[in-house]
Specification:
heterodimer, A: 212 residues, alpha+beta, 5-stranded antiparallel β-sheet, 4 helices, globular, B: 250 residues, mainly beta, 6-stranded antiparallel β-barrel, 3-stranded antiparallel β-sheet, 34% strand
């Protein structure tokens, strides 16, 4: 595709799109490339300063100001990403000093999307049995017993596929951070039919109103 | 030039794509200055990474740095280039040399595992755990034939030191570039440990138009214009997503 001189025994490594022929082509289509500054195109231009417009395949996310004070590079990156993905307030679900913080034993309603391009949402109701705090990949586990089968769902807190997390009922009397013992000794923890009915009741009332 | 820069592997971080499949990326700090070697029979650029104090640099090496007029560096890499991609000595290379959506190869020494047995080192099967096997559950087994050839061939896979060799992770996509911190976020695993020098180059197996999305080509040939870098936003992310192939279209 591109012609270039191969030196004897020397592997010209990594030469793909950056050949001299490509540079020559770039010069021909000078006005179309973004990487040639205005100063080169038109030296007499008063504001001969290059401008950058992101191409279609590159997105510019919300920019944060760098603050490396008191933290290392990886911590900084983690915090910035949490700020970006937790902008809708889901950071508060794991924030102990916030009243909306989740506690093990809460009964949650989690709505998730199947994919970013579809609008259909799945709902899962269950008891929060574990919260794993890992920065950006923090997760929580929700358990329910559906048709006599125990089902646990693990959700990544900052995943864009999670539409909403709501607390239906606050847990009382759970004295552990991880409620794995509920797998063997559930007691009455998974008697959630009443709550599920409450959840669906307003929906049925709304549909009845629409029909009438 | 097509070559990348020597960079320092900083660590793994989780990242969330639009489809919410998290992948690990290794961020790297970039680059340093450039040296030329044209009277040596081949055209290459010698790039140094990470400053080092003069008192810790050997005198012969220090002489080389002084001749080039640059600060002494910890690590030097050479990249073969075509003559038109040669840069002047002292040029600083930055993260924007790469473009989000581009494919790169990352080379670095692998994590050292020490002296390891054949099962871990070469993936051998070992012997059964029971049924009379005595004391040789994880051993090599046979190493050859009998009187003919009557010897063990050179290169026979056996136990020994594992790791610490150069490995190249090929065709890793650059997901994000940070101009202020000079970081590249690369999709996938990069060999080696944290804070280790990684040689990053344009992907050898993605030739021509396949190295980057079409609207981003041509890649900045000698390197990116520093004035343009000043105007660029701090972070640039390669777009992912689009229509989900797993969603049934009705």
């Amino acid at each position: 595709m591109f012609s270039f001189a191969r030196n004897f025994g020397v592997r010209l490594s990594g030469i793909t799109a950056r050949y001299s022929s490509t540079a020559a082509n770039a010069e021909k289509t000078n006005t179309k490339t973004r990487f040639v500054s205005l100063a080169l195109q038109n030296p007499t231009h008063p504001a001969a300063k290059p401008t950058y417009t992101a191409p279609a395949s590159v997105s510019v996310p919300a920019q944060f100001k760098v603050n490396t004070r008191g933290q290392g590079l990886m911590q900084l990156i983690d915090k910035e990403e949490i700020k970006r993905y937790g902008a809708d307030g889901r950071f508060n679900l794991f924030n102990k000093s916030h009243p909306d913080c989740l506690r093990p034993g809460d009964v949650l309603v989690v709505e998730t999307l199947n994919s970013m391009s579809a609008d259909k949402a799945n709902t899962f109701i269950g008891v929060l049995i574990a919260m794993d705090r890992r920065g950006l990949h923090s997760s929580f586990t929700v358990r329910n017993v559906i048709l006599k089968i125990g089902v646990e769902m693990k959700y990544m807190l900052y995943s864009p596929l999670i539409k909403s997390v709501r607390v239906m009922k606050r847990g009382e009397g759970f004295r552990r951070a991880k409620l794995y013992y509920l797998r063997d000794n559930p007691g009455r923890a998974f008697r959630l039919e009443g709550l599920i009915k409450q959840e669906k009741a307003p929906q049925t009332k709304a549909t009845k109103r629409n029909k009438a | 030039m097509a070559s990348l820069l020597s960079s320092v592997r900083v660590g793994l971080c989780a990242n969330l794509k639009a489809e919410s499949r998290s992948f690990a990326t290794a961020t790297a700090q970039l680059i340093v200055e450039v040296k030329n070697e044209e009277t040596h029979g081949y055209t290459a650029l010698q790039i140094g990474c990470s400053d080092r104090s003069e008192k810790n640099v050997a005198k012969p090496l220090l002489g080389q740095f002084m001749k080039a007029g640059v600060n002494p560096k910890r690590k030097l890499y050479e990249f073969h280039v075509t003559p038109d991609a040669v840069l002047p000595v002292g040029t600083e290379l930055v993260a924007s040399h790469f473009v989000p959506g581009q494919y790169v190869d990352c080379s670095a020494p692998t994590i050292g595992k020490g002296f390891q047995g054949a099962m871990k080192r070469h993936g051998f099967g070992g012997q059964p755990a029971s049924h009379g096997t005595s004391v040789t559950h994880r051993s090599l087994g046979s190493v050859g034939q009998r009187k003919d050839p009557g010897r063990v061939f050179k290169g026979k896979k056996m136990a020994g030191r594992m790791g610490g060799d150069q490995a190249t992770a090929q065709s890793l996509k650059i997901m994000k570039i940070d101009n202020e911190l000079n970081l590249i976020y690369v999709n996938g695993s990069v060999p080696g440990v944290d804070d280790q020098y990684v040689k990053v180059q344009d992907a050898v197996k993605k030739r021509g138009d396949k190295i980057a999305p079409a609207d981003v080509l041509p890649l900045p040939l000698p390197t990116v214009d520093p004035n343009l870098v000043k105007v660029m936003p701090r972070q640039l992310v390669a777009k992912t997503g689009g229509s989900d192939p797993y969603v049934v279209k009705e």
